[in-house]
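Hey,

The postdoc asked me to send both predictions to you directly instead of through the lab channel. I've kept everything plain text so nothing gets mangled by the mail client. Protein one:
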Amino acid sequence: MKISWKSSLMLFMAAFIWGTAFVAQSVGMDYLGPLSFNGARFLLGSAALLPVIWFNRARRHSGKGMPEKTGFKESGCGEACSGNGNVGKNLSGSRKDTVTGGICCGLVLCAAALLQQYGILYTSVGKAGFITTLYIILVPFFGIFLKKKVPGKVWAGAAIAAFGMYLLCMSESFSLGKGDALVVLCAVLFAVHILVIDFFSPRADGVELSCIQFLTAGILGSILAVIFEKPDAGDFISGIIPLAYAGILSSGVAYTLQVLGQKKTDPAVASLILSMESVVSVLAGWVVLKQVLTGREIAGCALVFGAVILVQLPGKGRGRKRLS
């Protein structure tokens, strides 16, 4: 299994932003309901990517249509954009995959984010944090059904990380209530989201796919908010700071880093790196909010970090070709 350290760094940056965004999400919920907050943040995330898309398209046009200068190799179409003498057809196919992938990712993302927000209303943040990170186990498990080979060290890393998350997030006895069940479904959908991105990202423009997924999630969330929450315009104005942080950084930047980072990273490895979001959130609370870590929590951080390092160590022999 080949490891791209550049892609791994992108995924860690995404996890870091998500981990530090918990404060903004918590404050934002003081002004808006889950549907309204998620709808607004995802629309902001989509809008934040429009200048990047404009810049990328301008750069492609300046390349005079040559496949190697269009930027599509970095955007995931690679071999599909060269060698067949029909650039227009390939670019059209890439746009179709980008739109289709963006809509599919957006639908899954919207459902997962809403389940998480509602689940937190009925369970503790510690439980929600641990249960959500079950996606690090679910991704390689689902990969079996997609005929993806998972190296033994990834399974070992997933088990170590899961135990680390238990030490880090669980402070009370484990029982599955209403909120817990919602977050379990959220973890399942986040695992599906990682696999959907893994399927579409090599075939699509990463930034445009990310923009479309936010637009899809934002529109759907906003429609549901108008129906069920009926938010007031003043609520959005009052919560503009946490909304801007969650929308532009946590959504627009971090999810795009996830899409781009997964291009050259196995989905099971990607899920482990992204799981460091919980570790970062605890460390951010320690540094920013002066929340002291217990010995149990420090041990959990160490286990998760060790699991991420384990799966990134180069394996023996020939690397496995990534299936998608």
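Protein two:
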Amino acid sequence: MLYDQLKRLKSGSDIRGIAVEGASRITLTDEAIRDITRAFGIWLRYRIGKARVRIALGNDSRISGPHIKQIVTDTLTASGIDVLYTGLSSTPSMFLLLQDEAMGCEGSIMITASHLPYDRNGLKFFTKDGGLEFTDIDDIVRLASDDFEHPCFPAPLNEGMYDEGSFMDQYSAILVKSVEDACGKEPLKGSKIIVDAGNGAGGFFTEKVLKPLGADTEGSMYLNPDGMFPNHVPNPEDKKAIDGLSKQVVEVGADLGIIFDTDVDRSACVDKSGMEINRNALIALLSAILLADKPGAIVTDSVTSTHLTDFIEAHGGTHIRYKRGYRNVIDKCKELNAAGTYSPLAIETSGHAAFMDNYFLDDGAYVITRILICKSKMNQMGLHLADLIKDLKRPVEEDEVRISFVPECTDFRTEGQHIIQDLMGKGLEGGVMEDVNYEGVRYNFASDIMGWLLIRNSVHDPVMPINFESDIAGGNKKMAKVLLDALRPYDSLDLTKLEEFTG
């Protein structure tokens, strides 16, 4: 396929597209899967300097998974690459198996599109060093394209071997051991903890992690894999999903509720009162746990609350508000540590959380194990998780409005950056621009608003997301009206949604 066609499938450091026929045409075609898979094999052999390699392959519960698995398997083995198929797997397990010498794999591919609808799917790639970077995906897409001359590299003379063997038992045992090492055997005995797996790959957590730790998991929901996701969007940020878990926790009298996305690289939870610990609250909880051991820098994406900054600083930490995109926050966190600044956590408000002590791998199940360790220790003191974040101030209003570029605007990234630079120069009435800001432009408002807004370019789409937060009812609309007036001169923007928001 041509490079221009393939690069449309890039989604940060992943490959994603429409994989099931429906309202939209298929973009993640069989041809694209073959070309990109073959290119990853070439790239990996060059990366490690071996002609013969073994690649692990897993998938979540999506209905297109088996079809894509067969294409990837056939492509790799025809290229002389050995394949270990691990079946239904979590994305983090596909990296951790590379650290197990007994598995004998140099790379891995996870077939998933995270929380996206059932008709989407994609490919995530790993080496023993971690998930691929943006630049690595660029290289692979170029290698996959027809207009790129493939380098000469001797491939094995024989077809690759195919084998099957799950890693989920070993992965689960790693999680159990981390809790037991900190808290002893069966530290959750007497606790009722339920899971909402959203019909994705996270159902294993009840049988293979919580029960061995002694927890009662009766009342857990949607544990069976179903790639149509019939109950709710498999996304810890989804309001229906988190509200449903909150209701279930209260109804069954659980001490904690846990929710995963489809491939278990993100998670959130609900405390015994039904209060969600998600987004800023989740970041605050993890920050409090880590900063109690050692002061350091917590790296987040750009849309976190000003109140979160206050909370982190009050706990002896430094808050680095960086860019959206989980690879961005992870790379920034690694950069800080390399420069001598202790930074134990990189986390997005979406729930992608990567710990320094866990290979900087965004692993939703590992997030929960850290919370379980904390919960077990607090239980012994007669305290609850919510006590750790009782000082986190919560805004009265939180909103996001996404305004689009008009179809005639073909270079939306450049135009969006031009608009942001203009706003930095002209300012906003009543607002004070944030001095240290890595993405878009952020203005703080005092007096009768007590809030902030951030406008930025989307990481992938031709839109400009705007986030608002206010401590006063009606404050977000007031800020939106100020911004609307400032944006009216730009014919490149469709301001309909912002107009509707302001009323």
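Summary for protein two, as requested: The chain is about 35% helix and 20% strand.

Thanks,
C.
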